[in-house]
Amino acid sequence: MIKKLLPLALVIGLLLNIPVEGEDRLLTDEMGRKVRIHYPAKRIISLAPSITEILFALGLNEEIAAVTNFCDYPEAVLKKPRIGGFINPSIEKIVSLKPDLIIATRDGNRWETINRLSDLGFSVYLIHPKSFNGVMKAIHHIGVMVGKEEESRKIIVNMISEKEDITTRIKSLPKPKVFFQIGYAPIMTVGRETLADDLIRLAGGKSISENELISYPLYSIEAILSKAPEIIIMSSMESRRDYSNLIKWWQNWNSIPAVKLNAIYVIDSNLVDRPTPRIIEGLEALTKMIHPEVLGEKR
Fold this sequence. Notes:
Blueprint: H1 2-14, E1 24-28, E2 34-38, E3 44-46, H2 49-57, E4 64-66, H3 91-97, E5 101-105, H4 111-119, E6 124-127, H5 132-145, H6 149-170, E7 177-181, E8 183-184, E9 187-188, H7 195-202, E10 206-207, H8 221-227, E11 231-235, H9 243-250, H10 257-260, E12 264-267, H11 269-272, H12 279-290
Parallel strand pairs: 3-4, 3-5, 5-6, 7-10, 7-11, 11-12
Antiparallel strand pairs: 1-2, 8-9
């Protein structure tokens, strides 16, 4: 009973201390930095695709002054002004747009960029979601700054409901070993305290690299053979790569249980790498791969 009350307590906790409209408010961002913002923000620049997705999911459009070159979802974002990449955005372009709020992410944006924009007097708020719960907190924090608290609450409640439906259905099932591949030459995977690692666990799997202290460790084929994953999932981070050839390459290692079981999959990286409301779609997709019998799928 206590466990079922926890998500509700999370939602209630997130809705506390909402600012009063029209006042400046000193907030603490997800990296512990003090950021003064004017509530609600009306001219926003997003420094990452995930942030842009959250802003649109909250119902914003006109308030979004500019986005990065890599922001591609939803379709409406394609009409927005661009400020360059999230690694190297144009400071001059950002200054010319006169934003009242810049939202950045610790995973992707450089401290040099954050500090430069802060020194210029801009309100720069950092998010740092590393788990499913972290994504919900980021959605809430952004919702508060832009005056969309109710919209953020609805998104969070829906995410909790769908997550609990999945986790309840797989609770008593075995946890197969999963290798989640994000890099190919060399082979790279995900370690502890990463979003993908948390999603694999929620989907009823056990990542073979879950104890790695490095967020994105390199793995040799010998290490993978020794850990004998039962499922291999490749994240489609490189849009131009031919993943059918990679699946064929894995067939060379037929001593791996995943190869014997024909349990090698490719998943849309945008659903599992971007901390946005669409992460629930990523969780569902992973569950179909790890426990296909649960959601009516067959390998």
